[in-house]
Amino acid sequence: MIPKAARRLSGSIRLNSNLRVRASDVNSSGARLMSEAVSSGDALRHVDDVVIVGGGLAGLFCALKLSPRPVTVISAAPLGEGASSAWAQGGIAAAVGEGDTPESHAADTIAVGAGLVDEAIALSLAREAGARIHDLLSYGVPFDRDLEGRLAVAQEAAHSARRIVHVRGDMAGKAIIAALVDAVRKTPTIRVIEGYVAEALLTHDNAVSGLQLRKAQDPTLAPITIMAKAIVLATGGIGHLYAATTNPREASGLGLAIAARAGAIIADPEFVQFHPTAIMVGRDPAPLATEALRGEGATLINAKGERFMLARHPLAELAPRDIVARGVFAEIAAGRGAFLDATKALGDTFADHFPTVYASCVASGIDPSKQPIPIAPAAHYHMGGIAVDARGRTSIDGLWAGGEVSCTGAHGANRLASNSLLEAVVFAARIAEDIDGRTFAARSTPSYDVPRNCAVPPSAEANLRALMSSHVGVVRDGDDLADAIRTFAMMEQSVGNISLRNMATTALIVATAAWSRRESRGGHYRSDYPTENPALAFRTRTTLTEARAIAEDVAAGVAPRLCATA
Questions:
Q1: Helix H or strand E segment including 34
Q2: Number of domains within the chain
Q3: How far apart are alpha carbons 285 and 283 in whole angstroms?
Q4: What is the number of alpha carbons within 13 Å of residue 437 lying toward its C-beta?
Q5: Is 516 within 8 Å of 550 (Cβ atoms)?
Q6: How does pLDDT run across 444-473, given as a tens digit for each residue?
Q7: Does residue 151 form part of some domain?
Q8: Co-location of 231 and 325 in the same domain
Q9: Is residue 118 part of a domain?
Q10: CB-based burial of residue 449 (10 Å sphere; 0-12 exposed, 13-18 middle, 19+ buried)?
Q11: pTM to 2 decimal places
Q12: Does residue 545 share a domain with residue 480?
């Protein structure tokens, strides 16, 4: 199964909580020493036994929970800056309000998950929510409180109770990450290496042995090899594989790809959630209009001012995200446009209640207190990922995965609003507990070939993202999926740029699973199979080897097959 952890270098190198060396002071010598180590065939061995890849919520929380055990955190961007969790506006779902219960929270999670939720995982997740909220408070997260000093809770789509804890309405992600980054920087046992991308997972006899790293944004430099006895992948999701996304550039499916290329089992990759209300103002990634706006009464209208969700679902704007996303998609496809109208529900109070959304709109020339906001669905969250058990262990010894890169079974085919941050902290704590107290035996360090990394035209990545949006997006069909599979299969095997190859690897796994599932369920909608098939009410478990075999079937015209688990 899976472990993981890490420390810091590059934007600055953190040696301990009181000593920092600026990157400008060490780049010439530090980079030279790394280059010399690689060119001479020596791996960098001065990292901790536990390495965490990812500087978002799951990675930082896991590192803090492992303290005082030394860990190394590796982050492609400065801590928190490349993390989807930092952009989360909704908050964290937790049954902390009067009259609410974990059992009710779990029931809502199961109902939204379209028959594929692991019910035991969902219930345990809900039951641990209160403790994890307490942890975040102890790290300094300033959750909103009511006049009596209790945690304030808000309503979001498909929740049967008000149970979303926020920070200033729509600033939860930013506030949580800021508090955790501050706590990490003050913890002397956490070493942080910033500005490096993990482009390959090194294994021997189905056990991790290390990572291949490369300087971010400079593919021409030689890679660096580090040895590790336990690795935690917390690299985020796959949103940047799509042309329209609310996710940062770093959410490109990297962690899933390197785990899959090392032989890890991947679960439910076909299930991608598209947020129905990304703000369409020409920005990449697109700003998000939080679901909490609809919870406060904002409506979805077309260019004629008609509320189109009333005819699509009894809950209208508060229907599950997949249904709302398809409703918005249909209005846009029909040429009627789609808008989020909060002029009546919030009006002049918009800026006070939702400052982040307000700022995004005003920066683009829209006053949301007086004008409807133009919206469209955008890739937002991946329900699938690296298959893990209840302790975050993967199918590779010494490898754990947490946060969006993992698939715990908690979301099934469709994620309930604001459950993602909860899952990230719950499983980060479980991973830390599973690793803590262990001693890791020395492992052999076989030699590895260092692959060449070729430059790639910017258009190649743009073309992959456009193909994912058009052929593996909100609405899919067999012919489009087959076309995408043929392209991704070629890229995954032959592209010389490692970053693009990893993107193609994840794209291939998502597309082949979507082609194989001949039904519509949750976030996976097939226009040629528009209804659920009760015979297919099981989770997908697959590997890169299986995805390649499916690609060969597509090329040969063979009927789909699903890799299933009960």
A1: helix 23-39
A2: 3
A3: 6
A4: 4
A5: yes
A6: 666 667 777 888 788 999 999 999 999 999
A7: no
A8: no
A9: no
A10: exposed
A11: 0.88
A12: yes
